[in-house]
Write a structure and sequence with these properties.
InterPro entries: ClpP/crotonase-like_dom_sf (IPR029045), YARHG_dom (IPR025582)
Keywords: Signal
Protein name: YARHG domain-containing protein
Shape: globular
CATH class of the largest domain: Alpha Beta
Strand order of the largest sheet: 1-2-5-6-10-13
Number of domains: 3
Radius of gyration: 26 Å
Pfam family, one: YARHG
Structural class: alpha/beta
Length: 533
């Protein structure tokens, strides 16, 4: 049996004593580069931005690189990328860019207003650019707006925009409050100060607006946790996303990680503690909205509150709660339960039930996943399932606890059949303590070639073998949208319009046959395996 008293302070003590702060270094003006591809043709209009070689081997993972300090006018580089220009008859025209491109960022920040203008422009273009910060690179201050706007744009039965951004373990993603730059020649005229203040308020309103934007699944592009870190960190300092807790609270995917764990009770305890700290509505709280005095506090403060809460005495006149932690395997699944989380009063506690896939036995140290891209590491893949069940108090005169609570598998099956069951799912990162530094996570060996595979192991049936001779991301896109086209789908994206056209289209919600639906599901599975965007 795990002794849970005192364990919380041991887990989180290293982080509570340390806050990571820093400042942005001077940098050259930013340049947007189009990098060599793996054979996919580039539009002619991007020639002014194109490099013949990758700046470093790690940039083979990128289609685009934005490098340097953001300045007024950098939006024009992104307009060039999309062939965007004024037209006397149509107002504006644009040629588009590859739909599944990866934009790597390396910038200390700069002009926040320009960064937000780029974000708005990319949204207008339905760009679908996934954003990454590679190991050793920095994306700080204004650059974080570009990072957070990263998304996967999916056009099918509907147009979906899904958050897709990631950092590697030694990347530096930093937030701080914006500042007003007035120069060093003061005092300044009243009108100049008022204009500068008004501009700052307008920019703050734009950031606030961005913090409320959601993708198709309802996920925030900028979580309240990140928005608060930005506002409360002084301009001369920097709050870096450098722990597991920061990444989870900020919905920032971490890639290049081999998720290794020992299948034991400590793992179940860590997962459940993390879910409790995330405080996303899974656990109930009898009195008030939650256990945190300051729900948006920085991670070290949250962990201090959590330790105080979990280690506080809970002896209510001989009323007892079990705090056992159990784990077992059943049908190639790991089941676990960590009992006795507080519920806000003496009337009941809460038991955390965990389930995830594994073909290994309890006690083994195994690799649970390899997080190579944002799809693997983010909310697109949520392999760890958790439910919470009430635990009622025991005393010398009460009936024994129900037998099903002694087996994690039986407990899961029983609670799943009740009306109170609510299932939440989480990424693999939740298997690590929130206090673990990202730089200390087990690292995947780098690949020599582009990180996105180009062939799938899942065979796909096709009615046009001459048009799509091999299973690639491009061929899967073609097959998927060909089905929609044949059923009268009206394409909103430029790529779909160019390839299929909209002549004779009549719907945005085509009705598919059973066979077409089965084929569509097969295509989507292959796209997931390839990491297509």
């Amino acid at each position: 049996m795990i002794n849970r008293h005192g364990i919380f302070g041991q887990l989180f003590a290293p982080l509570i004593c340390v806050m990571t702060l820093g400042g942005a270094a001077p940098a050259l003006a930013a340049d947007l580069y189009v990098l060599p591809t793996d054979g996919r043709p580039l539009p002619d209009h991007v020639a002014p931005l194109t490099l013949d070689t990758h700046p470093e081997p790690k940039h083979k993972a990128c289609d685009l690189l934005f490098d340097g300090q953001i300045e007024d006018g950098d939006l024009d580089q992104f307009k060039t990328l999309f062939g965007y220009q004024d037209h006397p008859e149509y107002g504006t025209i644009y040629d588009g860019f590859n739909d599944d491109a990866v934009l790597c960022l390396s910038s200390p920040g700069g002009d926040l207003n320009e960064a937000l203008a780029i974000v708005d422009f990319l949204e207008t273009m339905d760009s679908g650019l996934e954003t990454r910060v590679l190991s050793g690179d920095t994306c700080a201050s204004a650059c974080t707006m570009l990072f957070l706007a990263g998304n996967y744009y999916f056009e099918g039965e509907s147009i979906d925009r899904i958050v897709s951004r990631s950092i590697e373990p030694t990347a530096r993603l930093g937030f701080h409050a914006p500042r007003i730059v007035m120069g060093n020649d003061g005092p300044f005229p009243k009108e100049q100060v008022e204009n500068a203040y008004a501009r700052a308020v307008r920019i703050a309103a734009k950031v606030f607006d961005f913090s409320h934007r959601r993708d198709t699944d309802g996920q925030a592009f900028m979580t309240p946790y990140l928005f608060t870190r930005m506002l409360e960190t002084p301009p001369q300092d920097m709050y870096y996303i450098d722990t597991v807790g920061d990444a989870l609270l900020g919905d920032v995917a971490v890639t290049g990680v081999e998720v290794r764990a020992t299948l034991d009770r400590q793992l179940i305890h860590t997962i459940c503690s993390n879910a409790f700290i995330l405080d996303d509505g899974l656990f109930d709280w009898a009195f008030g909205s939650g256990w945190k005095r300051h729900p948006l506090a920085p991670l070290p403060e949250i962990l201090r509150e959590f330790i105080d809460l979990m280690e506080a005495p809970r002896d209510y006149e001989q009323i007892r709660y079990s705090q056992d932690v159990l784990i077992e395997t059943q049908d190639n699944l790991i089941y676990g339960v960590a009992k006795g989380f507080p519920g806000g009063g003496p009337y009941y506690a809460q038991d955390c039930l965990v389930r995830f896939d594994s073909y290994d036995e309890v006690g083994k140290t195994v690799t649970l996943a390899n997080l190579r891209n944002a799809w693997d590491a983010g909310r697109n893949t949520l392999p760890v399932e958790i439910m919470v069940a009430p635990q009622y108090p025991q005393s010398d005169h009460s009936e024994p606890a129900p037998k099903h609570t002694n087996s994690p598998h039986a407990y899961w099956q029983h609670h799943a059949s009740t009306e109170e069951a609510r299932l939440h799912s989480y990424p693999w990162l939740i298997t690590y303590s929130m206090a673990v530094w990202l730089k200390d996570l087990p690292r995947l060996a780098p690949r020599d070639a582009e990180t996105r595979p180009r062939t799938a192991s899942i065979p796909i049936q096709t009615t046009t073998p001459a048009a799509v001779p091999e299973t690639t991301c491009d061929s899967l896109w073609f097959q998927r949208n060909l089905i929609f086209h044949r059923n009268g789908y009206c394409f909103g994206g430029k790529r779909g319009q160019e390839v299929f056209g909209n002549e004779g289209c009549h719907t945005k919600s085509p009705q598919l046959s059973a066979g077409e639906t089965a084929q569509m599901n097969q295509i989507k599975s292959a796209e997931k395996e390839l990491g297509c965007r």
